[in-house]
Specification:
This protein has 458 residues and is α+β, with helices and mostly antiparallel strands. It is built from 19 helices and 7 strands. Strands 1, 2, 3, 4, 5, 6 and 7 form a 7-stranded mixed beta sheet that branches. The radius of gyration is 33 Å and the shape is elongated.
Length: 458
C-alpha cells in the first residue's frame, strides 16, 4: 500500500507542494556548494545486478548490493512520460548526497534523468552518504541500476512511480576510494592545522565533533579537496576518515598521558628509594598517595625513609634561616629534599624552592624559554616556519607551538585569555592531577614558567 493511499486529497496536495519546494532546492547545487561532476560512474553493472536476488541473504561482502524501494516517489512531479502504466522498465539512477537537507544531513536522494524522484532509506544513507560525496568530489556522478514502473494511484488520480534500485555494498564503494585508514593518516595534517583552542574543545568533547567544531574543520577544506567534506557544518555528515582521524588523535593523546604518568611513577619510586615518605612524594609530584602506594606495590618497593640525626637537623634549620632553598640545603647536608622538608616541618619552619620547582625543573623550563626565543628571533629575521624547522631540526608543528609560546613568554599581555587562565589555575591552587582540561594543564606550566621570567605576573 502506498503512502498516498492513506491521505486525503487536501493532504496529498499539501505534501506534493512541499515536495516540489524541496526538490527545487537541489541541495547539491546550492550557490557556493556546487560540486562539478564531469563523468558518470556505474558502480554496479547490470551483469552484477542480475546476480543479486530480491531478498539475498548472503553476506554483504559476497554480493554487489541489495535491492531496495526508493522512498517518496508518490510525490514525484508529473510532466514527462514514464512509459506505459504497469510496464516495468530498466533504468540508471543517480545517487545524490544532500548535506544541506534540513531533515537529514546524511540524506541520499535518487535522480532519474535529472529529476529528483525520492530517497534511499535513512540507515543506508547514514553509512554511505560520505562515500557518494567523496566520489562526487573526485568528479564522478554515482549511478546504480534499477527498475521502475508507473502505477495509477486512485487518491492522487494519476500515475505514480514505483522504483527499486540496487544499493551498492561497502566493498563496491571502497574499490573506487582510497583506503579509509590511509586517508585518516593523511588527515593528521588537518588535525595539526587546527588551532590549539579548537583541538582543546574537541578533546574536551571526547574527540567527537559538534556542529560548532565541524565548522572549524570545514574552513580547512581547501587544503584537503579530495576528502569529501560536507558543504555545511554538520557533525553527523562528516566522512568516516575524519572520525578515524579523531580516533588516532585520541590514541595519541592517551599515549602522551600514559607516558607522562609513567614518568611520574618513576620519579615517585626514585623519591621513595631515596628516603622520602609517601606523603612527601605525593606533595612534591602533585599525585595521590594511593597511586604512589599502588606503584610501590607493583614494583615491590617499601618505604625506606632514613631519619636524619640531630646534627643534620640543626644544619637544616640553620641553612633555612639563612634563606637557602630546600634543594641547596639537601645538597649541602647530603640528604634528600623530602628529608629537609620533614626536618623543617618538625621545627615549624616553612620554605620552598624558588617557584616551587627543583633545580632540574627550573633548568628545563629556562631551556624551553630559550628555545622559544630562538624561534621567534628567526621569524623576526624573515625566515618561514619551514625554513626554521629545517634549521633547528624540528617539525613545522613544533615551530608553530614555539612561536606561540615565545610571544606569550616575551609579553604575557599579548594573550590575555591564556594569561587569565594561568592566573585562575594559580588562584585555585590546582595540581596537575586536578586539572580537568588540556588548557588547565598548560596554564599550570605557564604559571611556573612566568614565576621564573616575570615574577610579578600575578
Amino acid at each position: 500500500m502506498s503512502i498516498a493511499a492513506g491521505m486525503s486529497k487536501a493532504e496529498l496536495a499539501n505534501a506534493r507542494q512541499e515536495w516540489r519546494q524541496r526538490s527545487a532546492q537541489r541541495y547539491r547545487r546550492l550557490p557556493g556548494e556546487y560540486i562539478r561532476v564531469s563523468s558518470s560512474l556505474m558502480l554496479v553493472s547490470w551483469k552484477q545486478a542480475d546476480g543479486v536476488e530480491p531478498y539475498d541473504d548472503r553476506p554483504f561482502d559476497e554480493i554487489a548490493g541489495s535491492w531496495s524501494f526508493v522512498r517518496g516517489t508518490e510525490y514525484e512531479q508529473s510532466g514527462q512520460s514514464r512509459g506505459y502504466s504497469g510496464t516495468i522498465y530498466k533504468g540508471e539512477f543517480e545517487l545524490v548526497p544532500e548535506p544541506g537537507n534540513p531533515h537529514d544531513h546524511t540524506a541520499l536522494a535518487v535522480d532519474m534523468n535529472g529529476d529528483r524522484i525520492g530517497y534511499l532509506g535513512a540507515r543506508y544513507a547514514a553509512h554511505h552518504h560520505w562515500r557518494v560525496r567523496s566520489l562526487n568530489v573526485l568528479g564522478q556522478r554515482v549511478m546504480v541500476p534499477g527498475y521502475y514502473r508507473s502505477t495509477f494511484d486512485p487518491v492522487a488520480e494519476r500515475d505514480c512511480l514505483e522504483v527499486v534500485v540496487l544499493q551498492p555494498s561497502s566493498h563496491i564503494y571502497n574499490a573506487k576510494l582510497e583506503d579509509q585508514e590511509a586517508q585518516a593518516q593523511r588527515l593528521g595534517g588537518l588535525w595539526a592545522a587546527l588551532s590549539d583552542e579548537v583541538r582543546e574543545r574537541i578533546s574536551g568533547d571526547g574527540f567527537h565533533l559538534t556542529d560548532a567544531t565541524a565548522k572549524e574543520i570545514l574552513e580547512l577544506q581547501e587544503q584537503f579537496p579530495d576528502v569529501g567534506l560536507p558543504t555545511l557544518p554538520y557533525a553527523d555528515a562528516m566522512p568516516r576518515p575524519v572520525q578515524l582521524m579523531l580516533r588516532n588523535a585520541r590514541h595519541e593523546w592517551h599515549a602522551v598521558m600514559r607516558r607522562q604518568a609513567r614518568e611520574l611513577d618513576a620519579q615517585a619510586l626514585e623519591l621513595i628509594r631515596g628516603g622520602s615518605s609517601v606523603r612527601d612524594a605525593s606533595q612534591e609530584l602533585a599525585i595521590s598517595e594511593t597511586r604512589i602506594r599502588k606503584v610501590m606495590k607493583e614494583a615491590g618497593v617499601t618505604t625506606l625513609r632514613k631519619r636524619i640525626d640531630e646534627s643534620q637537623d640543626e644544619m637544616v634549620v640553620a641553612l633555612a634561616e639563612k634563606g637557602r632553598s630546600k634543594a641547596v640545603i639537601a645538597e649541602e647536608v647530603g640528604i634528600s629534599v623530602s628529608a629537609v622538608s620533614s626536618a623543617l616541618r618538625r621545627r615549624g619552619i616553612t620554605t620552598q624552592n624558588s617557584s616551587g620547582l627543583n633545580e632540574w625543573s627550573r633548568a628545563s623550563m629556562l631551556q624551553r624559554v630559550a628555545d622559544c626565543h630562538d624561534v621567534v628571533s628567526l621569524q623576526v629575521e624573515g625566515k618561514t616556519r619551514a625554513e626554521i624547522a629545517t634549521q633547528l631540526g624540528v617539525s613545522v608543528e613544533t615551530v608553530k607551538k614555539r612561536l606561540s609560546d615565545g610571544r606569550f613568554f616575551d609579553d604575557p599581555e599579548v594573550n590575555l585569555q591564556r594569561l587569565n587562565l594561568a592566573r585562575s589555575v594559580r588562584q585555585r591552587s590546582l595540581t596537575q592531577s586536578q586539572c580537568a582540561t588540556v588548557g588547565e594543564q598548560r596554564a599550570l606550566t605557564d604559571g611556573n614558567v612566568l614565576d621564573l621570567i616575570h615574577p610579578e605576573w600575578l
